[in-house]
Amino acid sequence: MRINKFLAAAGVGSRRNVEALVKAGRVQVNGETARELAIDVDPNKDEVKLDGKPLRLANRVYFAMNKPKEVVVSVSDDRGRTTVVDLLETRERVFPVGRLDYNTTGVLLLTNDGDFANALTHPSNEAPRVYKVTLDRPLESDDRRAALAGVRLKDGVGKFVEIKPGGSRGDRWIISCHEGRNHFVKRMFHELGYRVRSLERLSFGGITAKGLAKGEYRALTKKEIEYVYREYGS
Ligand code: URA
Q: pTM for the whole thing?
């Protein structure tokens, strides 16, 4: 098995991401630093280490969590705050697929399958995200049109794909977008002169956390995993 395939299957990252680890000299095979990608390893015989720690092939696991507020989307937190990984019981080393802010709630996916995570988060795959947003004041029609046409952000133009009413007062909306830049929804509204009072992700790549209480999680179904690979995998 090629070294990059082994590393991805060990849950270290996507096949594309793990190549950088090899090039950086962080991977050892039987005590020797591996610097080339054209290396084959036998998972039953060879000892592969990352930064000196032994790796083994992991079972692939996939979860959807209903993220509560005040939980960090990260594997660990240097300020000692609870992370989404703390809330999940599994013997595999999982990581979150993309990010949600500390106070954003809703569906968050966690896995140890780097290719799955990459399929959903790579910008060119345009996996859809749907959010329920509450603003500090009613959204004006001109601003709604501007958010659909494109808003200049410091890291490039952003736009929403759809904006549907989420209530009758004009301050609640259901937003669809195809990208996951940091604080994307908040930055879009901030640029238009609004403050986001609350944000909940309703779906990501078609997967929802329906029926889960805050902090609860479930395993993805085979159908959901296959759907993601079919729609967004390369
Ligand atoms: N956009 C944001 O601003 N925050 C999130 O948590 C997700 C999308």
A: 0.83
